[in-house]
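Go through this pair.

…
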Amino acid sequence: MTPAHPTEAPTPPRALRVLIVDDSPEDAEIYTRLLRQATAHPLSCTSEELGEDGLDALRRDPPDCVLLDYNLPDMTGLEFLSVAGTQTPIILMTGVGDEEIAVNAMNAGAQDYIVKGRLKAHELLRTVERAIEKHRLQRDLTDSRLQMQTVLDSVGVSVLSLGTDLNLEYLNEAARTLLHLPPGTPAHLREHAPWLYAAPFDEAYRMVLATGGRMTFETRHPEQPVWLDVRVNRSAGGLSISLTDVTQRRLEEERLRLLESVVVNAREAVVIAEAQPTHPPGPRVVYVNEAFTDMTGYAPEEIVGLTPRILQGPASDRAALDRIRDGLARWDSISETVLNYRKDGTPFWVQLSITPVADRSGWFTHWVSVQRDVTAEVKREQHEQARRDILEMAAEGRPPEDVLTAICRLVSLDLQTLPVTAWIRNGDLLTLLASEQTDRAQLRDLAHAHVDRIDRVDLSRDQGATVRAVNSRELVVVENIHAPGVQLKDGVVALLEENAVQAMWVYPILPSRAEERPLGVISIFPREARRPTPAELVALADAAGLATLILERSAALGEMQRLALHDSLTGLPNRPLYLELLTQAIHATSRDHARVAVGLLDLDRFKTINDTLGHTAGDRLLVQVARRLTGTFRPTDTIARMGGDEFTFILPFSSDPAVFQERIAKHLHACFDRPFDLNGQEVFVSASLGLAFTPDHGRDPEQLLSAADLAMYHAKRTGTHVATYQPDLLRQDTAVISLEADLYRAQERGELELFHQPIVHAQTRALVGTEALIRWHHPRLGLVSPAQFIPLAESTGLILTIGAWVLRQACMHLAEWHRTHPHLSVSVNLSPRQFWQPDLIGTVRDALEVSGIPPEALILEITEGVLMDIPDAEATLRALRDLGVRLALDDFGTGYSSLSYLRRFPLTSLKIDRSFMDGVTGDDQGTPENVVRAVMLLAHALGLSVTSEGVENEAQANFIRSVNGELLQGYLFSRPLPVQDLTDTFLR
């Protein structure tokens, strides 16, 4: 019995030895850790910080691979390469990608070049392994070239001539050397090389001698490991024999046979192509192995002679193909992952490794491409990335239709690009919400082209696969839409046939609570009649689970938004929700190339109403404003309350901005053209609206709101009610802010001065009084126009203190004049803002008491807006009349002039606005004259005296006198004058 051999333990794998030359120990540690993460085999890593130390380590104990930093304290990586040579594979590493460094490194002998910041464990290990294998192949190739060179250099044909008796007659030096014969020509070859007379030589000699032909064969030297190519020819004197040492060729053929066996049986596809041309149409294929045929479906005879471009298709990455073309042009080794197509049109991903092959002269003759099918890996990465993107979109709060579109694309990716749609249930209505197609609008247009609007399914009325999937809560498979008994919604079959669809699968999106109805469905439309595969069922279940997560999260967020993102008073969206809706609107307009206007509206004098009538009335006003705004603007417009009395708008539009602004102005007028009812008190309220447009004024929500805010303040200052942002508004606003700050300090600095314009009797031209007019002497700007700073004082509330100062100063000036001219009166303008002041009566009383002038000498001028907009204006005016002061209606005819308030309010006089005097020339039949005459008759009929402003010439003065006008005021008599100048001119 043969004794059994003991079982030998398997030889453990040799450790991978890596030398790291890097002046950063931390980086060296990172590379070591990455390599250990990526490999399950033993690993030995050593490191050196200096290039010289690295070279010593390399000479002392060459590793399997060197990771070399480009920047070393004592030398560069290129200098290291020049000294190290090519005995060990070296990978050059840099902090940044630099093509020039990469080229120089490869030319200097590096096997590869990588960028530090992009390192991943498996990529680093693959780079090291590829460098080691590449170095081994290059070394083997070099060895083979040297061997071939030796063979070619040593080729020498040994020639012998034998007579018909087979005795030696001639041999050359090559033959003498081959046969180890002594110098001279031996007479008896049989004695020195008897094997030349044994088989198969003897048989060849006899056959050639007998037939007169020739014979060729190869045989092995009986005494030496040498193979000879033997050629025996009949010659005139006998035989001519040539012996050629083909030992090297036989060895190379054996090696090539072994290599071919490796290539033929390799699992990776191998393609060998000619070196030229590198430009289109590209090098032609000369060889493919069996793995290539298995991978692509192309037999060798179908691909040889063509270019590898036959594998490219419509979705092949042009950038990757361009990089391959550039690499071929530079004769570089290439590594790329590209999308190719099999013979049957099926796409697949392949990892290409292409290397140029040169002959012994260094001339590149071929390309060798090793190709590995990485479709599963790429699809897995794409699936994981798509899933991460979906979860990130959900976390960012993107609209459900965007997230569901991404889920549809994920399903389409897993199911080999089958058409996929997502439908969402709302009550009994299922609506098409998403598709893997980029353009959902195009999909809906296609659905709308059919009579029955197949983008909607009524679960209570319709029938078909979708309804069955919802009601059964299970997958419904229509394997063939043309099969007998198949029932689908009207119009669906026609649409599916138009798009070459043969089957339909409907997967329900089930909620997390079993008692609730499905949230919707995912529909898949295969282009061939079939059922889903197990893998496809898993993909559908995964997608439905994701959709459930997204929809339930969206519903929860919607409920939270309903509770937390709406204004509790008006029910409108509040600031956070408005900003979110604005962001979505901006994204939508970016995709659809539409435009949107951002509006910011502020109520005029709201604080005064709130302070005067109370917060309850203010809240009631805000509710009514919100109701009017939502009832006036379009349903597609978004209106929100930002806080206080500020409302914001999102207004999509496609018309010309000027036309759009005009339409918005009409809407605004419709909202505020009638009074608001505040607990039985009618109040007229106006508003100012600023507009900013995308993309003209930006695409950032805060930027647009800021622009609209500036436009709103411009509208408020100019009284235009609606204004569009202009770039120079910021500069204007800065100037206004500066002027506003100066106005706060103007009174305490004594910069304000009271001027007076004389008022004379129309018949006698005698001075009867003055109108007090404020002026501001700005230390830097000089005299500032009241038209510029009075609106500022109104908006900031400074008009209250300034108005009180004007009233007191005017009364004090009149008291001084009364010492010599007790018949004079003084007119003082009251701001509407002062009428909202609760202590206006007290302020007037104090001014009268301090100055000591009789109440009837003080005339308070008010505008028509006071009569219309102030809720308790009538009561305030009657209280002032009770003090004894007179009341004049200023600028009559410029507003909503009405007999009703002329009769209703306790007025004593009115002033005709200067605009009516512009056209008066004294013509009795002139239109301006008729208007002025009518006003005079109206006023006199109501017992009111009339002061005519803006009288600039005698014709105007004479006409007013002729129609019985009482008082005149204008440049004909005097411009507004400082107190002393008026005293010197009129009261001396």
